[in-house]
Design brief:
Blueprint lengths: L4 E6 L6 H13 L2 E7 L10 H11 L6 E6 L3 H7 L4 E5 L3 H17 L4 E5 L10 H9 L10 H10 L1
Helix pairs in contact: 2-6
Bound molecules: 4'-phosphopantetheine.
């Protein structure tokens, strides 16, 4: 069987159970999934690159075929360096589509050998986003079922 390596890139600011659901689905399809945290200073994330990486590493501990990493620069160049051929992105709702479609086509233009594969999370995660999570956590709302335990801890420390 063909051994296909996939990269799942994102800001993961912070990782949510929706991200974990996508990672789990991807790990059933591909021989290796590299979850790659973007170190892109223009996005101005709430959590440092080290914290985002640590949260993801803890949350994916024990998941077979899943690795975590940090990348900077063009995603397609990172994907090529990792000998991967697939970029994974999650699609929660139609509102995600336009941005994702543009990114996928730009990445294809930059490297036509890399395919973007979209996966849908379980429907119970479709309304979860990192920015909503941060807002609810800041205002003292429960994080139960929304984020992995490792992330809950980081959110509490940030409050
Ligand atoms: O979780 P996000 O913020 O939606 O992830 C966006 C990310 C990190 C995948 C995207 O911004 C990205 O790929 N950045 C790396 C720079 C790059 O390659 N840009 C051109 C892609 S169209």
């Amino acid at each position: 069987m063909k051994q296909t390596i996939a990269v799942y890139p994102g800001s993961f600011d912070p990782p949510t159970n929706g991200h974990l659901d996508i990672i789990s689905r991807a790990s059933c399809i591909f021989s290796k999934v590299i979850v790659a945290v973007s170190d892109n200073s223009t996005k101005n994330p709430s959590f440092s690159i080290d914290d985002r990486f640590t949260m993801l590493k803890e949350a994916t501990k024990g998941m077979r075929g899943v690795e975590t990493d940090i990348f900077s620069g063009l995603l397609v160049n990172y994907v090529r360096r990792k000998k991967a051929t697939v970029i994974i992105r999650g699609l929660r709702a139609v509102s995600d589509f336009e941005y994702e479609f543009q990114m996928a086509l730009m990445n294809r233009r930059l490297n036509k050998k890399i395919e973007t594969v979209f996966l849908m999370p379980d429907e119970s995660y479709t309304y979860i986003s990192s920015s909503l999570i941060k807002q609810v956590a800041r205002l003292g709302g429960t994080m139960e079922g929304l984020v992995p335990r490792s992330v809950e801890r980081f959110l509490k420390e940030k409050k």
